[in-house]
């Protein structure tokens, strides 16, 4: 049985690392910035070990209950600080600390020599601590604090190279767009806050997550109000998990360092939205309409992002759209009630997507660019990276027996078995995204690693007309250092085994069938024929990619005329950026919203204020006429006033 | 001599003072008229103190000296006030070579 202090230590260790780096190492020992990396890796490693202990404890004893601590007392409402250590949390803890540990080691190689090395590790520590705080939080307010903290860390890390205008703009965009969703979440929390009294009558605390579920079961929340509250929570999840139409920030977030993308924008923070819905699943489940909306939004996101992933030329953007698409799978899974498959997919996706991002970083390390049109042929120079990325890609594409196959097919099977119209629509949308996923990821593999090398960053700069400096070699075609390859290797192992061995369909190697599902207390299975079909279409997708991108002489411009329009539309991302920035923000928000407020300010508020000023000025002018400067005149008026008052007094008192 | 007559005297004095204050232009005369009003009040005070003493607040001889005390105070304050007033009049005279108060309307807008 794990002690409460040990669970807090999982959270406090990375936080301590952040404090130590930010307050001691960076100001005083910046010359030894390796110390920052050492601190981070040690503390997160310890956190990872403790997370494993916590997971073991939960496996042995089921959910571990800790009494919450009082934080704030506001009248009848008490806001607590506490820990939930249930199967969901323990899995999330392992994923977060495990992937974070790999990323920190990888960053040793990737960020080497960066002037902001210590700052980088400080922020990564803070992010890891916040993410841990988010998954262990037992109280909505506590959860919201960490929810915003991971957002802040995301902002700071996307804008890590803040001297680049694109990075600064992307950071701002990420923060503002997720904020829109967070507003919904905040409103949901406030709604709970207003229901404090109803909860208190039943001995429940409206802000404790466990009590909210209990309250819904007692019928304290229900009907439209419940649906709206769930939609508020979902709005928060949409922002963080980049669901349509709030997905636009995630591709831009690729301006951050690649390990940041790997940790925050692939494995953990973007999964926080999925985690949030999973955390509130008993509440969400109580509203049928909300579930349908969640399912449809997820499915639309999955296919919408997958189509855009088909045509991107930036390797990280392909992965970014892939992430959005896979998050769509998870959200859709939750929407059709497939709780276990959703968490399972979150679990497997964290490993293979982090791996793929690290692969992109490794490729960038050699070629100096992220543009796949200037890569090619890297297989010869970096065989390890190639092999590991291939494993990740196969897993993402859903090829048997890699982890992605299992989790994706469980989602499909669940949607298929749902039976309702919404479930069917969701199934077909998700199913249609399967070959696209396989296609875009293998397009990426072929463009990057196969064919002939097309010059890397030097060729890119030449094409862009940037003069190259003589004797400077930005391209060094070689395998990345082992500190980068090793974490990728470990994640690749996880990508292979995390599916089939964690939630097998039959008893295997002493692991009982559906172990993961039983652990989470749910059900999951695959339908064999359906799995075969999705495997077939995935292979079809890969085959198309082979045909278009592996066979030489078809690059560039392999798409025929009928596809050109579609290609154009996709590469402009359906004009979503233009629509949301130009249409919604500029015209709608600034134009209509800002314009009407401006009009109101000028015409109504200003006029009101000016009328008051004008009338008192004129009143004063009239009164000033009485002020003659003749003291005797004043005396006369005082006397007359006294006579009037006296007269009135006598008239009323002595009648 | 009873209260009523004393109050009538007080009222007459007050009205004379009030009239002088409002109607005369000479600053000295106005100050003197003010003094008349003060003294009208003093007469009323003393009269009330003499004739109307509520039971329960008087001393062992059946008196209440509040009115007389006020009168002493008013005389003191009035002396100070008249000194100040005359100083202003002198200052006014030095600047304007007149003591006509209708000329001294510096506070007009």
Quick overview:
The complex is a heterodimer of chains A (655) and B (109). Chain A is an all-alpha fold and 655 residues long.
Describe this structure in words.
The complex is a heterodimer of chains A (about 650) and B (about 110). Chain A has about 650 residues and is mostly helical. Chain A is built from 27 helices and four strands. The radius of gyration of chain A is 30 Å and the shape is globular. Helices cover about 70% and strands about 0% of the residues of chain B. Chain B has helices spanning about 5-25, 25-50, 65-95. The model of chain B has no long low-confidence stretch (mean pLDDT about 85).
User: What separation lies between the terminal Cα atoms of chain A?
Assistant: 92 Å
Strand order in the sheet with the most strands of chain A: 1-4
Low-confidence stretches of chain B: none
Rg from Cα of chain B: 18 Å
Main sheet makeup of chain B:
none
Class from secondary-structure proportions of chain B: mainly alpha
Order of helical and strand elements of chain B = HHH
By DSSP (H or I, 4+ residues per run), the number of helices of chain B equals: 3
Alpha-carbon Rg of chain A, integer: 30 Å
Task: Throw out a few tags for this protein.
heterodimer, A: 655 residues, mainly alpha, two-stranded antiparallel ribbon, two-stranded antiparallel sheet, 4 strands, B: 109 residues, Helix Hairpins
Secondary-structure topology with pairs:
The complex is a heterodimer of chains A (655) and B (109).
Chain A: H1 4-28, H2 34-61, E1 64-65, E2 69-74, E3 77-81, E4 84-85, H3 87-110, H4 117-136, H5 140-158, H6 165-194, H7 196-201, H8 209-217, H9 223-240, H10 249-252, H11 258-267, H12 271-279, H13 281-285, H14 288-309, H15 315-335, H16 339-367, H17 378-381, H18 383-397, H19 403-418, H20 421-449, H21 456-464, H22 482-500, H23 515-520, H24 528-550, H25 561-571, H26 576-624, H27 631-653
Helix pairs in contact in A: 1-2, 1-4, 2-3, 2-4, 3-4, 3-11, 3-16, 3-22, 4-5, 5-6, 6-9, 9-12, 9-14, 11-16, 12-15, 12-16, 14-15, 14-20, 15-16, 15-19, 15-20, 16-18, 16-19, 16-22, 18-20, 18-22, 19-20, 19-22, 19-24, 20-24
Chain B: H1 3-23, H2 27-51, H3 66-96
Helix pairs in contact in B: 1-2, 2-3
């Amino acid at each position: 049985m794990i002690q409460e202090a040990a669970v807090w230590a999982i959270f406090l260790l990375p936080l301590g690392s952040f404090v130590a780096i930010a307050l001691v190492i960076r100001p005083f020992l910046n010359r030894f910035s390796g110390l920052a990396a050492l601190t981070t890796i040690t503390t997160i490693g310890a956190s990872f070990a403790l997370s494993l202990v916590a997971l073991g404890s939960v496996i042995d004893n089921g959910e571990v209950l800790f009494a919450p601590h009082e934080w704030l007392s506001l009248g009848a409402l008490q806001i607590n600080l506490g820990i939930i250590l249930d199967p969901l949390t323990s899995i999330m803890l392992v994923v977060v600390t495990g992937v974070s540990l790999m990323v920190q080691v990888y960053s040793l190689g990737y960020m080497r020599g960066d002037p902001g090395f210590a700052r980088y590790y400080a922020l990564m520590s803070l992010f890891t601590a916040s993410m841990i705080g988010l998954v262990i939080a037992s109280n909505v307010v506590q959860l919201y604090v960490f929810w915003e903290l991971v957002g802040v860390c995301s902002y700071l890390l996307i804008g890590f190279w803040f001297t680049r205008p694109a990075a600064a703009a992307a950071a701002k965009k990420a923060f503002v767009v997720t904020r829109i969703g967070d507003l919904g979440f905040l409103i949901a929390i406030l709604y709970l806050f207003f229901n404090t009294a109803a909860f208190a009558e039943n001995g429940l605390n409206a802000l404790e997550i466990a009590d909210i579920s209990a309250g819904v079961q007692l019928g304290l929340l229900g009907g439209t109000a419940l649906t709206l509250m769930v939609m508020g929570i979902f709005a928060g999840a949409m922002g963080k998990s980049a669901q349509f139409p709030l997905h636009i920030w995630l591709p831009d977030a690729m301006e951050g360092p690649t390990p940041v993308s790997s940790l925050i924008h692939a494995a953990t923070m973007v999964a926080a939205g999925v985690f949030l819905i999973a955390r509130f699943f008993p509440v969400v489940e109580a509203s049928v309409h909300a579930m349908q909306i969640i399912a449809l939004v997820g499915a639309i996101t999955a296919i919408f992002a997958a189509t855009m992933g088909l045509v991107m030329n930036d390797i990280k953007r392909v992965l970014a759209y892939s992430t959005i698409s896979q998050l769509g799978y998870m959200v859709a899974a939750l929407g059709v009630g497939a709780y276990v498959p959703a968490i399972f997919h979150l679990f497997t996706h964290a490993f293979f997507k982090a791996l793929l991002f690290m692969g992109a970083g490794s490729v960038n390390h050699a070629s100096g660019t992220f543009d796949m049109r200037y890569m090619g042929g890297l297989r010869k120079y970096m065989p390890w990276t190639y092999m590991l990325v291939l494993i990740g890609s196969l897993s993402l594409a859903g090829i048997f027996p890699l982890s992605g196959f299992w989790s994706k097919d469980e989602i499909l099977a669940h949607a298929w078995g749902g039976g309702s119209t919404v479930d069917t629509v969701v199934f077909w949308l998700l199913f249609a995204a399967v070959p696209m996923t396989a296609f875009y990821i293998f397009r990426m593999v072929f463009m990057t690693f196969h064919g002939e090398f097309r010059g890397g960053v030097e060729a890119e700069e030449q094409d862009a007309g940037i003069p190259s400096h003589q004797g400077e070699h930005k391209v060094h075609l070689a395998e990345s250092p082992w500190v980068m390859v090793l974490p990728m290797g470990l994640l690749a192992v996880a990508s292979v085994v995390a599916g089939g061995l964690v939630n097998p369909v039959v008893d295997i190697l002493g692991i009982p069938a559906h172990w993961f599902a039983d652990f989470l207390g749910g059900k999951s299975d695959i339908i064999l024929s359906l799995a075969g079909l999705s495997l077939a279409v995935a292979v079809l997708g890969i085959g198309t990619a082979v045909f278009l991108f592996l066979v030489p002489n078809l690059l560039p411009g392999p798409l025929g005329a009928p596809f050109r329009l579609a290609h154009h539309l996709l590469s402009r991302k359906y004009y979503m950026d233009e629509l949301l920035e130009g249409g919604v923000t500029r015209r709608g928000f600034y134009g209509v919203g800002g314009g009407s407020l401006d009009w109101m300010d000028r015409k109504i508020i200003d006029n009101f204020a000016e009328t008051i000023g004008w009338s008192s000025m004129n009143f004063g002018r009239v009164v000033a006429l009485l002020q003659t400067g003749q003291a005797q005149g004043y005396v006369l008026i005082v006397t007359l006033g006294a006579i009037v008052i006296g007269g009135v007094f006598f008239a009323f008192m002595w009648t | 001599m009873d209260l009523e007559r004393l109050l009538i005297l007080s009222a007459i004095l007050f009205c004379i003072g009030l009239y002088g204050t409002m109607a005369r232009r000479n600053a000295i005369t106005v100050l003197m008229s003010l003094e008349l009003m003060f003294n009208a009040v003093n007469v009323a005070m003393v009269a009330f103190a003499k004739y109307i003493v509520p039971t329960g607040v008087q001393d062992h001889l059946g008196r209440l000296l509040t009115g007389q005390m006020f009168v002493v105070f008013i005389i003191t304050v009035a002396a100070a006030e008249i000194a100040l007033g005359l100083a202003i009049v002198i200052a006014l005279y030095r600047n304007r070579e007149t003591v006509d108060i209708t000329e001294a309307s510096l506070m007009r807008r």
